[in-house]
User: Which sequence fits this backbone?
């Protein structure tokens, strides 16, 4: 199976509760869904809900679904708040892709670019009582792989969860 | 699903019953405002009952930390009661479980303020 092979056209739509149709500019295939969303708190909730639904459809159990959805929520918070800083002129991109072995989620913002090396360790004693700075740590805790790509055009963060069990091979989960 | 908060008093301790989600936005603000209001009324023994909090994100965790330090800085004490598994696990992996005084029994928790 080739990861970059042609995508199968969707038979359904990629509706996300709370996500206005006008925010959705692309389309769904059986393997990939992409959204472009405003830099709002509503986007954070919508991204979390989309992640929860897609992870469940991919066959992950409830515990894993919760972790994936929370990781996506935290990444969306970073994109909306720290990346785009609620700028109405900047968008958040959110892609879900199911390959044979992975659920790959990509979140992009149009901010200044997040340097992962400059994120303080939230577990260090001097940082334990800080009121922020745990988002990336939680994302890393909940996903199998996390890749952060900052650039002048913004930050792209790729979250990967390996598919185990009967869902492997990209088959639909049992209803 | 937003967060709901109600307060009650037992032996000089204010028990804050929280339910729903403590997340960025409304949930965190509701908690912050409640703690701020209690402190303004000199109610500095605060027991946060999180038994019906089914979800918390990093902003919510930050809000708990903020409440804890704010109360402590004003000479008060804030304890947590009835953590759900999700909240418990999050406090464990963020190493905050030992920072907070976490209780499982309300009566014992109230006595612990003495």
Assistant:
């Amino acid at each position: 199976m080739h990861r970059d092979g042609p995508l199968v056209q969707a038979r359904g739509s990629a509706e996300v509760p709370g996500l206005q149709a006008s925010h959705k500019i692309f389309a769904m295939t059986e393997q990939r869904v992409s959204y472009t969303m405003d830099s709002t708190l509503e986007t954070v909730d919508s991204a979390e809900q989309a992640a929860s639904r897609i992870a469940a459809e991919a066959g992950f159990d409830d515990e894993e679904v919760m972790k994936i959805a929370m990781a996506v929520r935290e990444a969306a918070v970073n994109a909306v708040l720290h990346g785009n800083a609620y700028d109405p002129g900047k968008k958040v991109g959110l892609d879900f892709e199911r390959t044979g072995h992975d659920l790959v989620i990509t979140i992009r913002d149009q901010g200044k670019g997040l340097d992962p090396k400059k994120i303080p360790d939230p577990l260090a004693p001097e940082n334990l009582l800080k009121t922020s700075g745990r988002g990336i740590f939680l994302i890393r805790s909940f996903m199998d792989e996390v890749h952060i790509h900052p650039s002048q055009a913004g930050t792209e963060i790729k979250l990967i969860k390996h598919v185990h069990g009967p869902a492997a091979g990209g088959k639909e989960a049992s209803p | 699903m937003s967060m709901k908060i109600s307060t009650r008093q037992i032996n000089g301790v204010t028990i804050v019953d929280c339910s729903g989600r403590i997340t960025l936005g409304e949930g965190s603000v509701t908690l912050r405002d409640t703690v701020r209001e209690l402190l303004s009324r000199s109610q500095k023994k605060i027991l946060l009952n999180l038994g019906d909090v089914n979800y918390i994100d990093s902003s919510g965790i930050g809000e708990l930390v903020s409440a804890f330090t704010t109360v402590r800085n004003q000479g008060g004490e804030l304890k947590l009661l009835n953590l759900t598994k999700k909240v418990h696990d999050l406090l464990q992996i963020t190493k905050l479980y030992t920072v907070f005084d976490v209780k499982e029994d309300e009566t014992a928790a109230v006595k612990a303020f003495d």
